[in-house]
Design brief:
membrane; MetI-like fold; Binding-protein-dependent transport systems inner membrane component; mainly alpha; elongated
Length: about 300
């Protein structure tokens, strides 16, 4: 199962990373006369694929052409997953949009784990009032209605903000809100590690707290951080999709899975243009791949703990 999950993740990441090569069109390239065009049917003449254009004209699909994996000569077109209201190729935009959603999930995970590692290590190592303060603060974070607060914050911001600013705003929001659970788990690891013999021995020889945390305690959190990363990345990708869907994330014309799905919430899109749901379907293999890897890593960790006991 782990090998299969890793294979799925490698393929999904490769498709997103090489979107500029795999996508037959640019993410902003429009075909206004072909708005909401259905997915193009692929036909074969022997082993040679082709598509039909207007008036029944045949257009062969060429591979490795124009710096892309495949394409057709104008005025032909190949829209594997149809087009949106502006005549933009949905397949190409899903690939490009995956970059934004995945990058947001990865960056927010790094931020959340960094904050969680810092506060969890401080809380677990020092204990006492510091531990109580950090834990009560984390409980406050969990209790706040973040979605409504974020909607209120967005209302205070300018209607149109730059792509870079929107990206860092998303990362800051998701990462800052998400540090609590990693911090609690790391705190438990540190509480256990600080009572181990080699830590007590180093403390007896005069080692200070920064040295003990950096040299002896933080290395023990490595497996926890890896497992938490595989759990948090899909959660934060979904968070980006949700926030962008609600208008809190990256705006047009830059695609993300969230702002692409926002168009599908309209009734006529759901009924007559079901291919607009493609971003949600494309996210499923990536999300399940991470969750299956997390499950496999957790299972291995539990087996190791049982053997150690």
């Amino acid at each position: 199962m782990l090998r299969f999950s890793v294979t799925v993740l490698i393929l999904a990441h490769a498709a997103i990373l090489f979107a500029g090569y795999l996508a037959p069109y640019g993410y902003a390239e429009q075909h206004r006369e072909l708005a909401y065009a259905p997915p193009t049917a692929i036909h074969f003449d022997g082993l040679r694929p082709f598509v039909y254009g207007e008036r029944g004209a045949r257009y062969p699909i060429h591979f490795f052409t124009g710096g892309r994996l495949f394409g057709v000569a104008a005025p032909g077109y190949v829209f594997l997953w149809g087009t949106d209201a502006s005549g933009r190729d949905v397949f190409s935009r899903v690939l490009y949009g995956g970059r934004v959603s995945l990058a947001t999930g990865l960056a927010a995970t790094v931020l959340a784990l960094g904050l969680g590692l810092f506060w969890g290590a401080i809380s677990g190592f020092y204990g006492g009032w510091i531990d109580r303060l950090v834990m009560r603060g984390s409980e406050l974070f969990l209790a706040l209605p973040w979605l409504y607060l974020l909607l209120g914050v967005r209302a205070l911001l300018p209607l149109h903000i730059g792509t870079v600013q929107a990206f860092f705003l998303l990362v800051a929001i998701i990462g800052t809100v998400g540090w609590v659970r990693p911090a609690r788990i790391i705190r438990g690891v540190v509480l256990s590690a600080r009572e181990r013999g080699f830590v007590l021995a180093a403390r007896g020889f005069g080692a200070g707290a920064p040295y003990l945390i950096r040299r002896h305690i933080l290395p023990l959190t490595g497996s926890v951080l890896v497992t938490q990363a595989t759990v948090l990345i899909p959660q934060y990708i979904l968070a980006e999709v949700t926030l962008s869907f609600l208008g809190l994330g990256i705006g047009e014309p830059i695609p993300s899975w969230g702002n692409m799905l926002a168009e599908a919430r309209q009734y006529h899109s759901l009924v007559f243009h079901s291919w607009m749901l493609a971003p949600g379907l494309a996210a499923i293999p990536l999300l399940f791949g991470y969750l299956m890897v997390a499950d496999a890593l957790l299972e291995r960790r539990l087996k190791h703990m049982v053997r150690g006991a």
